[in-house]
C-alpha cells in the first residue's frame, strides 16, 4: 500500500517540477526582451509593461495546467493498487514533460513582440494581436497533454501488467511528443512576429503563413496523441 | 501476485517501447519544422511579393522534415499491434 501511494505522490512532484521549467524560461525571455525595449524607448514604458504582463500571463497557462494535474494527483495519494499508482505516475509524466515545449514556445513570440515594440512603439496593437494568436496556437500541445493526463487519471485501469505498461507508454509518448512541436510552433510564431514588427502592412499574409506552418508542425504532436490514445483504449 | 510469463513481459515492454519511440521521435521533427516555418515567415516579412514561392517551399521542407516522425509512428504501431 505504501509503495502504490508513493507512485502518485512522485507523479505529482514530476508534474509540477518539470511543468514549471518551460513557463519559467519563457517568461524570463519575455521580461528580458521587455527590459531591453525599455532601455531603448523609456517613454513607452506603460505600454511595454502592459504588453509584457499579457504575454507572460499567456505563457503561464502551461504551468497552471501542470499545477491542476499535480493537485489532482495529490488527492489520489490514498490508492492501494500498484497498477493505479503507476497510471497516476504516467499522468504526471505526460503533463510535466508536455508543458516544457509549450512554455518555451509561448515565450519566443512574446520576446519577439517586445523587441518589435521597443523598435517602434506605435505598432504595439498589431503586434499584441499577432503575438496572442501565435501563443494560443502554441498552447495546443499542452492541451493535448492535459487531455491525455486527465483521461489517465479518470480511467486509472486496475488491470494486469500489460495495461500498466500501456499506460506508462501512453504518458511517455504524449509527454515527450509535446516537447518538439511546442518549441517548433514557438519558433514559427517568433519569426512571424519579427516580420510584423518590420512592416505591419504584411500582417495578413504573415498570419496566414504562420498558421499553415504551425498546423504542419503540430502533426507530430497529433501522432503522439493518437499513439497514446491507442495505448490507453485499445490495449 | 500471479506469475508473469515471458511472453507477457515481452508484450508489456513492447508497449512501453512504443510510447518511448513515438514520444522521443516527435521531438526532432517538431523543432525542425518550426525552424522551416519560422524562416519562411521571416523571408515573407522581407519579400512579401514572393509569398507563394516561399509557402510552397516551406510546405515541401516541412513534409520532408516530417518523415522521421512518420517512421517513429510506424515503429510504434508495429510495436503495439505486431509484437
The amount of beta strand of chain B, in percent, is under 5%
Mean residue pLDDT of chain A? 92
Radius of gyration of chain B: 20 Å
The quaternary structure here is: heterodimer
Annotation, overall tally of beta strands of chain A: 0
CATH topology of chain A: Four Helix Bundle (Hemerythrin (Met), subunit A)
Q: What's the pLDDT, averaged over the residues of chain B?
A: 92
Low-confidence stretches of chain B: none
CATH homologous superfamily name of the domain at 27-81 in chain B? F1F0 ATP synthase subunit C
State the major sheet of chain B: none
Give the number of helices of chain A.
9
Number of domains of chain A: 1
Q: How much of the sequence of chain A is in beta strands?
A: under 5%
Explain the overall architecture:
Chain A has 235 residues and is mostly helical. Chain A has a single domain (2-233), classed as Four Helix Bundle (Hemerythrin (Met), subunit A) (Up-down Bundle), CATH 1.20.120. In chain A, 88% of the residues lie in helices and 0% in strands. Chain A has helices at residues 2-40, 45-75, 82-119, 124-138, 140-155, 161-177, 179-198, 203-217, 219-233. The mean pLDDT of chain A is 92. With 83 residues, chain B is mainly alpha-helical. Chain B has a domain at 27-81: F1FO ATP Synthase, CATH 1.20.20.10. In chain B, 86% of the residues lie in helices and 0% in strands. Chain B has 3 helices and no strands. Chain B has helices spanning 6-25, 27-46, 51-81. In chain B, helix 1 runs antiparallel to helix 3 (51-81) and helix 2 runs antiparallel to helix 3. The longest helix of chain B is centred in the last third of the chain and has 31 residues, at 51-81. Chains A and B meet through helix 3, helix 6, helix 7, helix 8 and helix 9 of A and helix 1, helix 2 and helix 3 of B.
Amino acid at each position: 500500500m505504501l509503495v502504490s501511494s508513493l507512485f502518485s505522490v512522485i507523479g505529482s512532484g514530476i508534474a509540477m517540477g518539470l511543468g514549471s521549467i518551460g513557463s519559467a524560461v519563457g517568461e524570463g525571455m519575455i521580461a528580458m526582451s521587455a527590459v531591453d525595449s525599455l532601455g531603448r524607448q523609456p517613454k513607452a514604458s506603460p505600454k511595454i509593461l502592459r504588453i509584457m504582463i499579457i504575454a507572460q500571463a499567456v505563457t503561464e497557462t502551461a504551468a497552471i495546467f501542470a499545477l491542476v494535474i499535480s493537485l489532482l494527483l495529490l488527492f489520489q495519494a490514498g490508492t492501494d493498487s500498484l497498477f493505479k499508482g503507476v497510471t497516476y505516475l504516467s499522468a504526471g509524466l505526460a503533463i510535466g514533460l508536455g508543458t516544457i515545449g509549450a512554455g518555451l514556445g509561448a515565450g519566443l513570440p512574446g520576446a519577439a513582440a517586445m523587441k518589435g515594440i521597443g523598435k517602434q512603439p506605435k505598432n504595439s496593437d498589431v503586434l499584441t494581436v499577432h503575438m496572442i494568436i501565435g501563443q494560443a496556437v502554441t498552447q495546443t500541445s499542452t492541451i493535448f497533454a492535459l487531455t491525455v493526463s486527465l483521461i489517465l487519471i479518470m480511467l486509472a485501469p486496475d488491470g494486469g501488467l500489460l495495461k500498466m505498461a500501456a499506460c506508462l507508454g501512453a504518458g511517455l509518448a504524449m509527454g515527450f511528443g509535446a516537447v518538439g512541436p511546442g518549441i517548433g510552433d514557438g519558433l514559427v510564431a517568433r519569426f512571424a512576429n519579427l516580420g510584423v514588427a518590420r512592416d505591419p502592412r504584411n500582417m495578413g499574409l504573415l498570419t496566414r503563413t504562420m498558421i499553415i506552418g504551425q498546423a504542419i508542425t503540430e502533426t507530430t504532436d497529433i501522432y503522439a496523441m493518437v499513439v497514446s490514445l491507442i495505448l490507453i483504449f485499445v490495449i | 501476485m500471479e506469475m508473469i510469463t515471458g511472453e507477457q513481459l515481452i508484450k508489456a515492454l513492447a508497449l512501453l517501447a512504443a510510447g518511448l519511440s513515438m514520444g522521443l521521435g516527435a521531438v526532432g521533427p517538431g523543432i525542425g519544422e518550426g525552424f522551416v516555418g519560422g524562416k519562411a515567415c521571416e523571408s515573407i516579412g522581407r519579400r512579401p511579393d514572393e509569398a507563394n514561392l516561399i509557402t510552397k517551399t516551406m510546405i515541401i521542407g516541412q513534409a520532408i522534415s516530417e518523415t522521421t516522425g512518420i517512421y517513429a509512428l510506424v515503429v510504434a504501431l508495429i510495436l503495439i499491434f505486431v509484437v
